[in-house]
Design brief:
- It is a single chain.
- This protein is mainly alpha-helical.
- 42% of the residues lie in helices and 4% in strands.
- Helix 11 packs across helix 12.
Amino acid sequence: MPAKAKHRRPKQNPITRKLAFAGTGGAALALPLISATTAGAAVTQPAAVASVTTLAPAAAPAAQKATAPLTYSVIGGDTLSKIAVEHSVNGGWQALYDANKISIGSNPSLIQPGLKLTLGTAAKAAAARAKSVAAEPAAPTYANNLDGWIRESLDVMAKHGIPGSYNGIHRNVMRESSGNPMAINNWDSNAAAGIPSKGLLQVIDPTFRAYHVPGTPMDSYDPVANITAACNYAAARYGSIDNVNGAY
């Protein structure tokens, strides 16, 4: 910034009966074949569920028994279809896959022996969590260049209600520093006073500290921090960085 820029100094449903029933009638269903690599199968339950029949009714209410999660340990020769039928998984193999997709991976045909799958109520909860995670928007990524710095700054500015446009920022950056985040003015009156203008938008340290925007580094050479602080200052003094067309 030019020397005369004074602004820079701030202003039991029983589990055992359920498992026994699950194996009946399975051969009559036509479901996709999705196979593991070795023979055998094993069903396991958390210790608390396995011992539920020895607990007094008050300690293990029926509602807890009905919703207790089950786990299944895959052994060779298994398929998701077979597991879903044998253990009465609501929604069939597709629901079982959706609930365990993070563990299984992108190919439902590749279920490895030893893989632990959740069944029943646990599977439903896992499926809901997986859908919730999938619905969350991915955090934006920014290129480590002038374009990326401006775009990240605009997102920070939007969160703090600071006005400004891509073109307004770019125009002023090119005039002040030619896009060099390490630019420093060592010759004007500010430099003579020991507070040289720095960074993309040539901000002196007092102005940077006064208009620093939370969520950005406290470093006037940091591109995003420099842009957002300068735009915050420009908004306070001129209404927007878009209104700045010269020394400010």
